Amino acid sequence: MTVEKRTPIPVKDAIERVVKESFVMPTTTVALDESLGYILAQDIIATYDIPRFNKSPYDGFAIRSVDSQNASGEHRKTFRVIDHIGAGSVSDKTLAQGEAIRIMTGAAIPEGADAVVMLEQTIEDDDSFSIRKPFEHHENVSLQGEETQENDVVLQRGQHINAGAIAVLATYGYTEVPVYRKPSVAIIATGSELLDVADPLEPGKIRNSNGPMINALITKHKLTSKVYKIQHDDLESSIAVVKQATEEHDIVITTGGVSVGDFDYLPAIYEALQANVLFNKVAMRPGSVTTVAVTKDTYLFGLSGNPSACFTGFELFVKPAVYAMMGANAIYPQIVQATLMEAFAKPNPFSRFIRATTTFNGKEMTVVPSGFNKSGAVIAIAHSNAMIMLPGGTRGYQKGYTVDVILTDSTAFETELLL
Amino acid sequence: MTVEKRTPIPVKDAIERVVKESFVMPTTTVALDESLGYILAQDIIATYDIPRFNKSPYDGFAIRSVDSQNASGEHRKTFRVIDHIGAGSVSDKTLAQGEAIRIMTGAAIPEGADAVVMLEQTIEDDDSFSIRKPFEHHENVSLQGEETQENDVVLQRGQHINAGAIAVLATYGYTEVPVYRKPSVAIIATGSELLDVADPLEPGKIRNSNGPMINALITKHKLTSKVYKIQHDDLESSIAVVKQATEEHDIVITTGGVSVGDFDYLPAIYEALQANVLFNKVAMRPGSVTTVAVTKDTYLFGLSGNPSACFTGFELFVKPAVYAMMGANAIYPQIVQATLMEAFAKPNPFSRFIRATTTFNGKEMTVVPSGFNKSGAVIAIAHSNAMIMLPGGTRGYQKGYTVDVILTDSTAFETELLL
């Protein structure tokens, strides 16, 4: 029985080793209304200008601006209304001097007209109206191509498809959207101490919380997963199960079994699978024993069995790998700065990640650790929307210090209306 | 034909009027692995301590700390290993003087032991090992109840169920989770100028981008929606369709038809439904004509037909209403501060919301408008993860000013690793 020696590498190096492997998934197409959360697999090129024609941004009257010159409160100019056009309709008339066409928001500016008078700027009288000020050429007109022009790249390959991207794709008639396939994920919680959620408690045992948590994180990123049954500490069956998982999935996430104990089989499993271990120790707390390995086309993430360490490993390593596989341009976590609202002693030289709650107090972004925060803590994760990142090699942090914060959850914790 | 006079109210007042209506949905239960994104409908009380028993946070040997006193490099203390316990197992032995039990991470501390020696701190020799330093009472022991104690509230009613909450619920054996039902949403795009995504273009017409965009925003919040077919400008059928939607759904979102034009039927529809109009003009740009009305148990959101205004109306009004209906404690958008990286002229005294991209540049949070940003703009929405909020009554903003930013999208736009 020997204790395996492991050399910790810096967090940044570990993340870079993970994403450098970059198995990019093949591309496919999905229906527009299924495409949210996918990564776009090709540039989307404008096939026409937006706006596609000069249009009215208001309800009002299309006029020739030249006819409005010298209008004033004392000398109102009167126009004769020769047509009404609703949105989506096009007038077949061309304006002559002193003529106007009633126009709706979004309708095409008729021939001859070059300005729009808003309803609120008129006094109406049957089939005519008057105005009290001159209008400029193109006043109140949304010009063809002012937003984008034909052949412009309107969405980039590698961009997250968000609601706005879906609006753009709809505009250009994409009923099907070119995307990267999403990786499929196997989740295997390991450990003879683990009970299923539905199981009654037994002495010395705990319920498996990492499996459901990781499954929720996978669901949050709109990936599909298969949750394997809890794998007890038996080497042969563990090898068989993980091997099967690597054959059926693009990512295999195990929790537990990554330490250096007698029943921690992951090193032996990786060896049996001839997987290339990218690292098995990271200079960070919690989660220093996080291990990542790769086979030919599968990532193996060996996350800690400690919930806070498990969560941290997911956010730091699994998430960037997932988005790299999906071909995303933006794969790293969103970082903000915040003012630390309570001191945090830091007893070791490793980088420290602390489940935390960020709040904007009306003046500044603030952050506090979300309660009891050891590696094994679970409740703090539920009350966090961020992780404080204290770099290695620094000492304790005092209240009032500015710290870097990784945003992990977009559900706000504020209840006040701060607008 | 008269122009309806509308009195704008401040954004904050408008939001407060919306959420004050608060139709809270009935409660139900959902399976644990379906509960992500729901709001918890009751407090979750700890039914036992966490940890539930004194446990080892490391692989190593459980000892009696008293036996380690005076250990040093010169005078190592030797222990005899009398049992091996894996995680989940419990030893039936009680330690006597000089004895130790091999223990795995997570296993219960055996009777008589009060400290754990990490494997790395030992020299092993068959059935014994020696140490070179004394251990304190409870050194390397995770104490029962140190994270939380029986009867503590571990999750609050009204909290978003995130991955961490799911881990807590799993720990306490919740296979079913008490939640508020989610509101069902009807989406009705209105306007005779609108074509379906699959339709070929026609003169004067545009494809409906608001319907797919709003549907994506609804999907993002994990609500179910029914997308109605495009409603052309016809009062009678519009009344019938919206009436049916209010009967079948908790929220009805219309886009378009909220202006003051001849074909803008929403006021007439609200009147026909005897809906209470909370406001029909807000002192903001874009989206000043956003209208919100309520019937007995349904919200009617009349969002602008202009995509940027439509998006803004969703984020400001629909989102808080959705979370208020779901019983959430946190219903308002997350706000941060950022440094404006380009000047923004502001030609009117209304509050201004600008689709924008926030980036943390390693030193500070920065923000820039996401391109062409008029009310009708669509592409900028796709490239935004935030909205800059410039309060009413202020003048233009210079580069370098600090501005408030509402976060609207958690997908990062950064590609650099900033750890």
Automatic annotation (TrEMBL), chains A, B:
Keyword entries, A-Z: Magnesium, Metal-binding, Molybdenum, Molybdenum cofactor biosynthesis, Transferase
GO molecular function: metal ion binding; molybdopterin molybdotransferase activity
One Pfam family it belongs to: MoeA_C
Pathway stated in the Swiss-Prot or TrEMBL entry: Cofactor biosynthesis; molybdopterin biosynthesis
Cited InterPro entries: MoaB/Mog-like_dom_sf (IPR036425), MoaB/Mog_dom (IPR001453), MoeA-like (IPR038987), MoeA_C_domain_IV (IPR005111), MoeA_C_domain_IV_sf (IPR036688), MoeA_linker/N (IPR005110), MoeA_linker/N_sf (IPR036135)
GO biological process: Mo-molybdopterin cofactor biosynthetic process
Cofactor(s), names only, from the UniProt record: Mg(2+)
Top-level taxonomic group: Bacteria
Gene3D superfamilies: MoaB/Mog-like domain, MoeA, C-terminal, domain IV, Molybdopterin biosynthesis moea protein, domain 2, Molybdopterin biosynthesis moea protein, domain 3
Coiled coil residues, start to end: none
Domain MoaB/Mog positions: 186-324
Sequence similarity: Belongs to the MoeA family.
Protein name per UniProt: Molybdopterin molybdenumtransferase
Organism of this sequence: Staphylococcus arlettae
